[in-house]
Amino acid sequence: MDTSKSLASPIELPHRSTPPGFLTGETIDTVQKGSGFVQYGHPYAALDRFFVGLKPQWSGINAIEFTENSPVTYVKKFRKAEANVRVNYLKATSHRNLVNLREVFVTDDSIFFVYERWGISLKEICQLWPVFQLGEVEVATLCNEILNGLKYIHDELGVSHGDLREENIFIMENGDVRIGNIGESMVRVPKPQGKDKDLQAVCNIVQCLLGLDKAESAGGTMRLLAGDFAGAPCSATIDELLQVCF
Predict the structure, then answer these.
(1) Which residue ranges traverse the bilayer (predicted)?
(2) What is the pTM of this model?
């Protein structure tokens, strides 16, 4: 016999219901209060908050929070595959060049990072080449902002980013440049020379944005200076690169 499906009444679908296609294999327990910033339990168990799950992920986002009278936030899920994930290193961030981490929820096998909203990624900009390409002045500005964000990560947070790529650097509607995935950076075990590799990643990003690895990249003095910057030695510091940023 054929069975027909009917839509459930909205009255029967409060916040506490499991977001569809989102938490397969996991149990939502009551949120237990932790330090306020780090809480233990599932974020979707909070009865006074409203999350919309995304499956598949969109730009690495697992859910978007649309709680009344609160700014929109993005949720990213990080599976604790490693035994020595450093939850005690997590802290709230506040810098204009970071996608700031607002809250963290810890479960038995996952960490949920609640980030402020972000914009278009540099990878999306790179994919527009050569139809659209940033000029040397724009790239120099971007580079300066990225280095300022890295300085905060290295000096104030005391960690390296470890995964600085075009995919996780974002441009906001107002032009701000923000580095993403700082929560993942704080919980990962740092790799040797991690901070030096962050700086090399900035140089690689400059090469991508200006197409310096392409035959068509010949240009004037600014482009030559950009090439010199992109080829900076591994021993260069953030302060040195900020002073010579083309």
Answers:
(1) none
(2) 0.78
